[in-house]
Amino acid sequence: MRKIGLASLLLCASAAFAQEGTVTYRSMEVSPGIHMTIGVNSAGGFASGNLGSIVTEDYVVMIDDGQQGTAPAMVSHVSETVGRPVDFVLNTHYHGDHTGANAAFAEAGAVVISHHKLRERLLDNTESAGGSGGIPVLTFGDGVVLHLNDITAKIIHVPNAHTDGDSFVVVADANVIFAGDLQFAGMFPFIDLNGGGTVQGYIEAQRKIASMADENTSILPGHGDQSSNLAELRADTAMLVDGYAKVRALVDQGLSEDEVVAANPLAAYAADYDWYFINAERMTRTFYADLTVGN
What we know:
The protein has helices at 15-18, 71-82, 96-99, 102-107, 116-124, 199-211, 230-252, 257-263, 267-273, 280-292, and strands at residues 23-31, 34-41, 51-55, 60-63, 88-90, 111-115, 138-140, 143-148, 151-158, 166-171, 176-184, 218-223. The chain is of the alpha/beta class. The strands form 2 sheets. The chain has a 7-stranded mixed sheet. The chain has a 5-stranded mixed sheet with strand order 8-9-10-11-12, covered by helices on one side. Helix 2 (71-82) links the parallel strand 4 (60-63) and strand 5.
């Protein structure tokens, strides 16, 4: 998988990034009625996290919706793509590059759905939801199922993974899984330790997704320029497991954070997984912090 850009701050995606170029969106139909949508910035900068949609005879469901600053472009693109208003917006996690157009879609009549913890996070920073009108009005705990004519979408919460309010969506009828930011395809992932994420939780979330997939499943990542698959997801998980173990071994030797970084334990993965927001050094520091903070 090739790497695409992300804002230098994932926690609160800013409209300033979108203003550096014109943002447009392109959608690909991965299965009848199921689309993956990717933002494109004309200046080569950040546009948004990846988004998705499920379109049936009577319903349109958005899975995440991009940044606040690109909301008009997002709403316009969805209208052109599906030809109907959006009924439901599901947020897979609370970061503003996936929730920033909530208010715009809610104003147009959509019901915003999320995990309880995600709603709490957006209440603390309503700007990430595009304003107070974008706060989810329907929340769930372990999960919820949407019955959409001939398609069933199973929304599954995973604890303390990318954040403390993550969910992924399984559409078994179409053999498609929307992973959200539980997969940065072929890239070092951002694991939001300050937002309740943990490395082990992230690994377990990827394993759970893998357990519900087969070799023909289309896995739609939160970041990456095309759909992924089971083999690629397993490779990403193996990198995390091995890299985390290498950093743990150095921590167990009593090395400081800078000494661990200097040892370059993720060197074997840097060429394939580095990108401008998360490189091997930052991933190493994330592993170190996860292993040591509060211990």
